[in-house]
Amino acid sequence: MNIYISNLSFNVTDEDLQDYFAEYGEVSSAKVIMDKFTGKSRGFAFVEMPDDEAAKKAIQELDGASVDGRTIGVSVAKPREDRGGNNKGGGSFQRRGNNNYSNSRY
Description:
Blueprint: E1 2-6, H1 14-22, E2 29-34, E3 41-48, H2 52-62, E4 66-67, E5 70-71, E6 73-76
């Protein structure tokens, strides 16, 4: 099960997450999401646990917990396509060529 963790302190590391969730079962991966330009934490992370029951227990017990002075949110991660707001562009900004104004004289 893929788990989403929000409102993380910027000091929390992948290893910290691994330790927090390992108390509930096997952790296959733990990744704090970093800003690609600054290299600093973006304040959220994903943890994968192969045992769904252990993952559910971790979610239940860690959601709302205080970690490094911040109250974290822990929930089942939603697949990318289900997050909504997926506007890939289009519309008038990508149209080229024949518009009513290209040859107009004012």
